[in-house]
Amino acid sequence: MKYEVVASLLLIILAGTVICSADPGDRKAPPFPHHSIRATVDTGTSRVQGTVIISAHSATSLTVARDKLRILSVMIGGKTADVDTGSELLTLKTLQDDTVEIRFEGTFQSSPPSEGSATPGNVIDDRGVFLTGTWFPRIPGLFTYDLTLTFPKGYRAVSEAEETTLDESEDSVQFAFTFPHPSEAVSIVAAKRYEIAHEKHRGVNIATYLFPEEGDLAKTYIDHTKKYLDLYEQMFGPFPFKRFAIVESFLPAGSSMPTMTVLGQDVVRLPFIVETSLGHEILHQWFGNMVYVDERRGNWAEGLTTYLADHLYEEQKGNGWVYRKQMLIDFGSYVSGTRDVPLQTFTGRVDPATRAIGYGKAAMVFHMLHTLVGKETFSASLRDFVAGYGFRRASWVDIQRCFEQASGKDLSWFFDQWVSEPGAPDLAIENMSMKWNGTAYETRFDLVQRGRAYRLTVPVTFFSSAGPAHHTVEIDSDRKSFEIFLENLPEKMVLDGGYDLFRALSSDEFPPVISRLLGAETLVIVPPPSEADRYAALGQVFGHASAAQADDVTFKDMGSSSFLLLGVENPLVKRLFGRIHAGPGFTLTVRKNPSSPLQVVGIASADSAQEVEAAARKLTHYGRYSRVSFEKGRNSAKETAASRKGIEKDLAGQTAAIEPPPVKTLSHVTASIRDKTVIYVGEAHDRFAHHVVQLEIIKALHRSGRTIGIGMEMFQRPFQKALDNFLASTIDEREFLSRSEYFKRWGYDYNLYKPILDYARKEKIPVIALNLRREITEKVAKGGIDGLTPEEKRELPKEMDFSDQEYRDRLYEIFKSHPSSRDGNFDFFVQNQLLWDETMAESVGDFLRERPDHQMIVLAGNGHIAYGSGIPKRVLRRNGMSYATVMNDGEPERSVADYLVSSKPVEVLGAPKMMVLLDDKGGQLTVTGFPEHSVSEKAGMLKGDVLLTFDGKEIPTVQDLRFELYFRKKGDTVTVKVRRQEPEEGETTTELKVTL
């Protein structure tokens, strides 16, 4: 790995630095209390015993933290003091220059780390010693100290020390540690088995304390340490200490103390430790171990170290934007509601939410600060900060002061909105338009901040055939309009594609990942129909979840929570995603919630309870992935779903172009698709030429010897028997049209489809009614699937997939084009359309399952076939059978169909028309008007007439009239009886002769 400073990121200013501090006139360190510590460590009894002598200068009252220690005695000024030694804090009265001597002992047996902490509790046992912070009585805050420790013979110990002396006797070993700076803690790490290596680099003694199993890593750690020291000394000046040690611990530790870092044995060999974590801990020597954190006003050190270590290493590789996006994903996953707190209240990581704030958000704040003040000022400010606050406590306020002094700017607004307040801006683009103004492409748009308005400089990039054009816009309100003039025709606009802003991700940018399940504010677990105990171990990982049965979950419920569905046979899986493939072992897949872009749905599957238990405890480490698989607890696969880079808005779009291939005939198309199991032939319903193409394909495949069936969108499943009887010639056409309720349920002239039905009847080809009953789809369009009765829901497809976002996007464009869309519900519209497609797909799948020797030709509207997302892919999901798509007169877009047919216009002798506008409300047909040259108006019909009979037959509905007209020819004369209201006679009945 390379560690050179990226010139475009940090330019180091070596001259002209002005030191910043809380009080520039005061360079003297305050008087710190001194602790002289003498102790003996007994690994056999897990006990430490010792004495600490505290010199507090002129203080007349001291507060000493006892923690869990046993206080054996307290002497003040050489005299025994009467002190309540059972209190957590000992309050001691002293005279000027009195010393306080406290004898103590403590027992430290093994205990696990606290939740969210990488550092375990204090431990002394036969494996070694790990003591930090609370193992001796001390005055809280900064203090100086000297330390002498006695261990059993053979031990080697490390502490925060620039110098260490060792005195080994026959049965013990004594260490004296010297640290000449004020500190806020004293740590001890010791073991018998250490192999110790040393090397001096530019005045710094580098040492490794590794167990024999990892002894071969010493050179690797030392070499990487030298490179990190070179990197950060160039940035911030000399290393703060004379010594730096890498110490291996028998505990799962991971922490940085002055002059050393401690790494657990379980991670020392992991390659990313030397590549990233080691550099992070070395940088902490400056930020956190030299400049101390004033935690009363927020811990800034973790965010700054993350930015200048982990993030910088990715930036050097060209992946800085990826790292920044991941920080935004983590924040969006874990931080919501009451979990969101200001940076100034963050003191340390206790859970994923605090990590996303204190590490991620804080790192992004430093990135934005770097962008705001520029690379030179950013570097100079941090060098001033290090020089001015060495071995002192510093806060966000002090960082602000240093940056203001270096930049000459008032940055209070910046720190107020990013440090003092919680939250993140939520940006959107609205009212996009573009036009050519004679000299340039004038692009207009509104930038909207949903929620609180921030002061932002937003990067905007326009992409064209000439390449990207970069701009920035500034906003400090909830909405602002912009116009940008471009030389080249833009195809799309992207806001913050480099993730330079801390902000909420748009739904297109936010991939469905496991962390969104782990951090969901409301999560519902839905158990499988059987063997729910198999997934019991997941309850420990997702302990914040509630439970619900699949049949009780409505689409409205789905929109308000994230869900974890257990088992791929779960009814809710089939209702939302159709079916999910279950591999061996354990698999967790996360998808976007079809009912809400803010929520996700996880699907877990496993072969056994043992597989779940082995994988469950590892899931928290795989939060960035959308799908993970484990076999016997070992990760076998992991992947993250694709997502957009930045907030995108299409403009002109790429101009479609095709290279004209040799023109082929319909017979060539038919020959090419002959071996496909399912052939979809699209149509515009009112174009007879399209139905001619459909018939020609049917005839060609039938003549080739294939055993075929025809599926038709135009007929609904409850009327399959009417189709069967007609095809079997047991009923005639009039009876068939009556029983199938064709004119009630389909809005197009039967003459358009008659040749296809006649051919199927003649050749004994089965025709399948594909569609759902109209009463159900109309009800869903008004009230959604949740509005159906249990009996109606039983007619729905057994599985449905709502997860196709492109399908949903195309439906939205259709929905917006409807005049009634403003008053409609888009979710209901989607549910309605998807029910059509899933029902037709189920009908096709059922037919082919029952007749596996058949080939099926499906006739449906182009919209149900285009891109395969309507019916074809839903059938494929069910049976995996090969298919081809043929569209009539479609646009030449990528992947729209396998074949586009340019059909020649063909006239059809359609049913005659009465040329009258009708309203059939109230159980009667009322004339509301006439088109130009109306034959009915010519015959004497008037607006307001009520049609009673047609050649003696009652016609209460439009469907009844259409049925009767179908069996007439143009030129026929029919008798129509009407009722009308005469001014003088009142209500009268009149018969009219209408020539069709």
Can you walk me through this structure?
27% of the residues lie in helices and 29% in strands. With 996 residues, the chain is α+β, with helices and mostly antiparallel strands. It folds into 6 domains: 159 residues, tricorn interacting facor f3 domain (Immunoglobulin-like, Sandwich); 129 residues, Orthogonal Bundle (Neutral Protease, domain 2); 69 residues; 118 residues; 236 residues, Rossmann fold; 79 residues, PDZ domain (Pdz3 Domain, Roll), CATH 2.30.42. Strands 5-4-7-2-1-10-13-12 form an 8-stranded mixed beta sheet, with no helix packed on it. It has a 7-stranded mixed beta sheet with strand order 29-28-30-32-31-33-34. Strands 38-37-39-36-40-41 form a 6-stranded parallel beta sheet, sandwiched between helices. Helix 20 runs antiparallel to helix 23. The longest helix is centred in the last third of the chain and has 25 residues. It is elongated. The N terminus is likely disordered.
